[in-house]
Amino acid sequence: MNYDAAKPLALCTGMVLVFAAMPAGAHHAFSAQYDSEQPVTLEGVVVKIDWLNPHAYFYIDVEDEETGEVSSWACELTSPVGLMRRGWTRNSMKIGDMVVVDGILARDGSALMNAQSVVLVSTGQKLFTRTPAEERLSSTGGDQQ
Prior knowledge:
Elements: H1 3-21, H2 30-33, E1 34-50, E2 57-63, E3 70-76, H3 80-85, E4 98-106, E5 112-120, E6 126-129, H4 132-140
Parallel strand pairs: 3-5
Antiparallel strand pairs: 1-2, 1-4, 2-3, 4-5, 5-6
């Protein structure tokens, strides 16, 4: 092998070894993160939207009616591709929209939920609802994908 061909081969081999040594991100089952025995309905203002894989998230500020205290909640959806297959676009929900979200609370008690339906308060339009297959998987402890 000549010297010029050895450099790219050594570089590629080194990159493969570096990536192989990195921990892989695990995709956990629905039941590992969420407790299907803890449904919740929240109404809040959309403050952030992350249209990312493997799951899209949106964040809402929810005001406690009794204390007036505002808490921020993360709401997990399915993947962006799954949302697009249901007719969503990046503009279906906007910062400042008031939404009602039905979902399942995180097991760890954090302000995180798996959104099962999302409704725009201004129009009553249902933006998102889980498919029957996703409902079956979440109730049996499988992954929502």
